[in-house]
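Example for tutorial group B:
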């Protein structure tokens, strides 16, 4: 979580240099979701994500150099520099795709799970999305199809309460439970505190055991909160769309702080943390240098990576 946080803070810091020319949605504040879920996945498991994908990619074992190069549009990026932040793909990491259209990678993930099932393979597929995606037809159709076909599919909804500037209160009926909604479709459904990595890992463990035992799909709703603006590196709390008390109460429950409160009791914790930060910052500096110095993709093969063969 610390590594993901530092990487995204570095992206935020350098974004205004205008060399990363893709819209960028940061997961700062939501790291425990990606890390807790990934802790229960195997390298062969497949992952799909949405516009807010960096944490999912890194937690699945994605390559930092290839991520940063992708943000800079360079040929050494994980999508060959053609995709940018919202279109990551890296089959070496089992990270199949992320896409910018809300909910549209959910049915594609079900297709991947169906493929695994038809081939008798044992891995599972994860689809991460925000709670806004549960307002799209694609979510319901996929959930229904996945139950009927008993697909090895894990649907992970990161409920950060907002879709851009719109709160849940103006988008969904009061007191609706998204977990209960998924349950009503017939999916084995769980929910938990998405800011507590131990709780996320515990829910992930239940869901993954259910799927691996051949019992069909699972759904997890994780309650969490983004720290920065919807898209971009800044804080936008001056706009006033998120109540101050709400913000403060979630910021107090920062997922990194929650873990640090426990870890700080361990002898030499401070020293261990400082050495982790030093190591991570070195790695980040090298990734940025490599990305900045890498060539742009060769314009002679623009269509490569764009259309499937
Ligand atoms: C089908 C579609 N509608 C609208 C948009 C514009 N849009 C991009 S991200 C976003 C918010 C999605 O909210 P949520 O799914 O909760 O994810 P979060 O940004 O909170 O992580 C919207 C409306 C889009 N990309 N696709
Ligand atoms: Mg949201």
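The residue assignment follows.
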């Amino acid at each position: 979580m610390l590594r993901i946080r530092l990487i995204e803070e570095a992206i935020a810091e350098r974004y205004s240099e205008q060399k990363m020319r893709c819209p960028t949605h940061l997961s700062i504040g939501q790291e425990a979701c990606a890390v807790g879920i990934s802790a229960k996945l195997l390298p062969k498991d497949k992952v799909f994500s949405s516009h807010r994908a960096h944490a999912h990619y890194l937690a699945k074992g994605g390559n930092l150099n290839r991520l940063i190069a992708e943000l800079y549009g360079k040929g050494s990026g994980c999508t060959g520099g053609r995709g940018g932040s919202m279109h990551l793909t890296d089959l070496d990491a089992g990270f199949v795709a992320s896409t910018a259209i809300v909910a549209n990678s959910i049915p594609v993930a079900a297709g991947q799970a169906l493929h695994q099932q038809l081939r008798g393979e044992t891995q599972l597929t994860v689809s991460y999305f925000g709670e806004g995606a549960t307002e799209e037809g694609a979510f319901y159709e996929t959930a229904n199809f996945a139950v009927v076909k008993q697909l090895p599919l894990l649907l992970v909804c990161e409920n950060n309460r907002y879709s851009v500037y719109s709160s849940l209160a103006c988008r969904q009926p009061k007191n609706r439970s998204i977990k209960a909604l998924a349950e009503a479709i017939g999916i084995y459904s769980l929910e938990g505190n998405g800011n507590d990595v131990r709780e996320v890992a515990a829910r992930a463990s239940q869901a993954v055991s259910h799927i691996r035992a051949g019992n069909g799909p699972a759904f997890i709703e994780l309650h969490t909160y983004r720290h920065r603006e919807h898209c971009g590196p800044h804080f936008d709390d001056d706009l006033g769309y998120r109540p101050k008390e709400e913000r403060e109460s979630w910021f107090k429950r920062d997922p990194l702080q929650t873990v640090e409160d426990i870890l700080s009791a361990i002898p030499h914790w401070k020293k261990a943390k400082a050495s982790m930060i030093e190591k991570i910052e070195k790695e980040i500096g090298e990734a940025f240098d490599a990305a900045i110095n890498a060539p742009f993709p060769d314009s002679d093969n623009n269509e490569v990576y764009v259309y499937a063969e």
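The chain has a mean pLDDT of 96. Compare this with the pattern of hydrophobic and polar residues in the output above.
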